[in-house]
Amino acid sequence: MENNRSSWGSNLGFLLAAIGSAVGLGNIWGFPYKMGKSGGFTFLIVYLLLAIFVGMIIMVSELAVGRKTKLSPIDAYQKVSKKFAWIGWLATIAPFLIMSFYTVLGGYCLQYIALNMTKLSFGNDAVAMSGGEIFGAMLTTPLGCVVFTILFIVICMVIVQGGVSGGIEKFNKVGMPALFVMLLIIIVRSLTLPNASEGLKFMFVPGYAVKAGFIESSPNLITVLGTAGGQMFFSLSLAMGAILTYGSYLSKEENLVKNSVIIVASDTLIALMAGIAVIPAAVANGIANGTPVGQIKLSGPNLLFVTLQDVFSNMGKVGPLFGVIFYVLVLIAAISSAISLMETIAAHWIDKDLQKGETDTRQRNVLIVSLLILIEAVVVAADGLGSNFSPASLLGISAPPVFLDCFLDFMDCWSEGIAMPLGAMLMALMIGWEKGPGLVLDEVAHGDPSAGFKAFYRVCVRFVVPIVMAFVLAGQMMDFFGGSQVIWYIVAVALLVIFWVIAASGEKKTE
Ligand code: PFF
User: How far apart, in whole angstroms, are the C-alpha atoms of residue 427 and residue 465?
Assistant: First the structure.
C-alpha cells in the first residue's frame, strides 16, 4: 500500500503546506486581539513559552506518529496504541466540526472580495453602507451566505482532489508567498495612517487595553495561560489530525525537529505581522471617526468584516483596492487551512481503499467528504451567527449558555474547546506513559538525534504537556460553558489523573 500512498514533492513544499495549515483566520482575528487584551508582551512571552514547551512537542509527536505509521489519524492511533486508539476519532471528528464554520467564514471573505470589487469598479458609493450595516445585511441574507459557502467548499474540494503534491502543495507554493507580500502591503498602508501608533500600543504596551477602556481589568496569569494555550493550539493546527496527516506524507530523510521549529516560528511571525497590519488601521480609523478608543471593535468576525471594511471604505478611491488585496489575503489563509482539514478527513477513506487494493479513489472520497461538510456548513451559514436561528432556539431553551447562542460557537465549543485540548493531553500521556517517548524519538532519529533534544522531549511530553493541557482544557470549558472556575479545574484535573493512571499501568515502555 505504501508505494501508492501520496507524498510531498519536496520538503519546502511540505513546509509551505504546513505553514499554510497553521496560518489562518486564527492568526488574523484571534492572536492580535488576545495579545492586546491579555497584556501585550506578557502574553507574547507566555505564548512563546507555550509554543516551545508544548506546541513544539505536540508538533514533533504528530509528525513522527504520522511518518512512522504512514497512515491517517484513525488508523495511525489504532496502530500505535491499544488504550488510546480512540484519539484518532477525536482528531478526525474535530476537523469535521471546524469545517462547519471555517467554510462559512471563507464564504464571507468571498462576499467581501466581491463587495470591494464592486466598489472598485463603480465607486465607493455603489455600496454606500457602513461596515456594520453591510455585515448585518449579509448575515440576515441566508441564501447568499449558503451560496458563497458552497463556492468556498468547491474551491477547497478541487484543490484537495488535485492530490497532496499536485493540489495542496501547488496551492501553498503560490499562495503562501503571495499572502506574505499582500500582508506587507497592508502593513505599510496601516502604519502610515494618522494615529496608527495607538493601535501598536494596544498590542504591545502592557496595561494599555485597560487604560483605553477595552477591558475593565488585566486578566490573571492563569487566565492568560488558558487564552494563550487555546490560541496556540488552534493557530498551530495541533491535535486536529492535520499535522499528523501532513507528516504521514513526509519522507524519512527530513528533519522533524527543524521542520517543527520553522512552522512554529513562521506561524507566530505571521500572527504578529497580521496584528501590525490590522490593529493600527482599525484603531486609526476609529479615532478619525470620533469613536472612543475602547469601543473600537477589535475581535472576532467584527474586526474582519465590520471594522476593517470601514477602514477601507474611508480610505477614499484606493480603499476598495486595499480591500480586495486584504480579503484575498484572508481568503488564501482560510483556504490553506481548510484544505488541511479536508485532507485529514478524506485521507481516512483514501487509506482504507488503498488497504483494499483500490487506488485512485481520491476524487470520489474528497467529493463525499465535501458533501458531508456542505450539509453541516449550510446550517451554520443559514444561521448567520445567530441572527436567523440558533441551537438554543431550535432546542427551545430560553436562557442558553454562550455556546448555544449561535451554531458557529456551538461547533467551535466541541472542536476547539474540548476535542483539541483533550486530544493533546491524551496524546502526551499515550506517548509519555503508555508507549514511552521512544515511540517518537526513534522516528525523529531518522533526521537528527541530539541528546539535548531527547532529554527535553522526555520531560515535556511526560510532565509539562499533560499538566499545561489540563489548565488549557479548564480554561476553554470556562470560556464556553461559564460557571465556576474552580469546578472546571477540578474536572480537568480529575480527567488528567484518571487518564494518567490508565496510561501508566501495565505494558513495557520504550525510552
Ligand atoms: N490554524 C488555523 C488557524 O489559525 O486559523 C485553523 C486550523 C487549521 C485549526 C487546521 C486546526 C487545523 F487542523
Answer: 9
